Amino acid sequence: MSTYVDTGTHTDTRTGAVPAYGPVDAALGFALFYYLVARAGPTIEAVVTDLFATVSPATVGFGLAGFLWFVFVVTTIDQVRRQLAALGVGSERDVSRQARSRGPSSSARLAAYLGLLLVGGGLALATFASAIDTAIALLPALAALNVGAFVSVEFVVMVVFFVSYSVATHSLDRLLIGGLRALLSTPV
């Protein structure tokens, strides 16, 4: 019978993947969704009450509030699940996916994320007001199934806004969480 004694130091292999990516992106995505629903609320109420005469605007507003809470709870549960998976808690599939996640990013990757953040953020900032107004204006056309309303310059600007906002928030998430990972992984 043999005995193996290991006197070396051990580090957790998942330490580089804690915290998991995604919370900044999710929070900013929900903030935009909340803003859009808040701004479009009166239009949604008008469209729904025109389509269904028996539904009151208060009922539609209550439904929108409930929908916002539902999206908030689902987003929060997903982010908690992702953070727990990064710690090794959760289903085998979630934990193995987080274990494959990279640790702190390289300097080239950080520079790419910074460039994407600046370009995406600049485009999102430049197209924000027009995109939100277009999204709200398209709601009655969507209810009437007017496909011709979707072929316009304003619609393209709206698509550019949502894509650039998504790229900017993803990049910001990678930069902030990557920086936090780097801080946590450096020995004290």
Number of helices: 5
- Inertia-based shape: flat
Q: Biggest β-sheet: count, sense, barrel?
A: none
- Computed Rg: 22 Å
Report the β-strand fraction as a percent range: under 5%
Give the number of DSSP strands: 0
Element-level helix/strand string: HHHHH
| Secondary structure category | mainly alpha
State mean pLDDT (0 to 100 scale). Answer: 85
Q: How many structural domains are formed by the residues?
A: 1
| Assembly context of the chains | single chain
Question: Separation of termini?
Answer: 40 Å
Question: Could you list some keywords that capture this structure?
Answer:
mainly alpha, 188 residues, 5 helices
Provide an overview of this structure.
It contains 5 helices and no strands. By secondary structure, it is mainly alpha-helical. It is flat and about 65 Å long. Residues 6-14 have low confidence and may be disordered. Helix content is 73%, strand content 0%. It has one domain (16-179).
